[in-house]
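Changelog note: in this version the structure field was regenerated for every chain. One regenerated record is shown below for reference.
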Amino acid sequence: MFEVKILGTGSYAPDNVVKNEDISKLVDTNDEWIVERTGIRERRVSTGEETSMLSLEAGKRAIENAGISAEDIELIIVATATPDNFIPSTACMVQKELGAKNATCFDVSAACTGFIYAVSIATQFIKTGQIKTALVIGAETLSKILNWEDRNTCILFGDGAGAVVLQRSDKPGIISLYTGSDGTGGEHLMLPAVQLNNPFCKSNKDMDKFVSMNGREIFKFATKIVIKCIEEVLKDTPYTLEDIKYIVPHQANAKIIELVAKKLKVDNSKFYVNLDRYGNTSGASIPIALDEINKKGLLTSGDKIILVGFGGGLTFGGQLIEWS
């Protein structure tokens, strides 16, 4: 089995910045209420760029950061809950624009944990020797599936994309992986797809087409499962939380992160947070944050980090990584 390292990172978000004051013109809310409950101050909202376009830009930047060419890519996985189309996949659309003619391409749907799942899948392709280099992208245009009259959801989400290039390595990079699912909680975070409608059955024309969320249940789930994911990726390794430079969590709610830090008895500063500037970008949130850490030069070779995600499905997972 081969080792796998992160060779490069990239991210991209629309230029259009929507502040809490802007949201307050659409629904009954205000900046103080949103910040106090979520930690979000602004988010990026697309004015025309689709998920494939966000993915493409993040992918280009990751490839450039990795110092490779598009033809070196043998696998492209896009994690998204908001694709341009069901067919073709977002990954195939990215392949076309990149000119990554040697890549196998497909999408992964695991909501906010999608990037964690996609990295785990790509890691197995590399570990077993099937490929050497993969491009993994987490991307969302959540603005197109929001009910902008529902203040419980429209204040939370933003658009964006993040990407990593993974490559075969002689030295440890991705040290441990953990993923899981709990379908019994699926109703707590839902986004309907195309409804059944054919000559042999009647469609439900009143079916809601927007994302819906039971915030209280997701909060309870998240504060427990993040801790479990962290414990699982550290288990059977020589490392403890004291060895971890940063924990990069899914950027859903500042209160979740604060409570997890309190339960783990670690300082909040160990958790890297950019939620205040991007909102919840679902499958894009972890790679956007990771790219930001990389671009700021906050990591040096040998540093240990943990990526941890949770989301609709319900889905969850984490990764312990040695930075190279």
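Spot check on this record: The domain at 3-171 is CATH 3.40.47.10 (Peroxisomal Thiolase; Chain A, domain 1). The chain has two domains: 3-171, 175-322.
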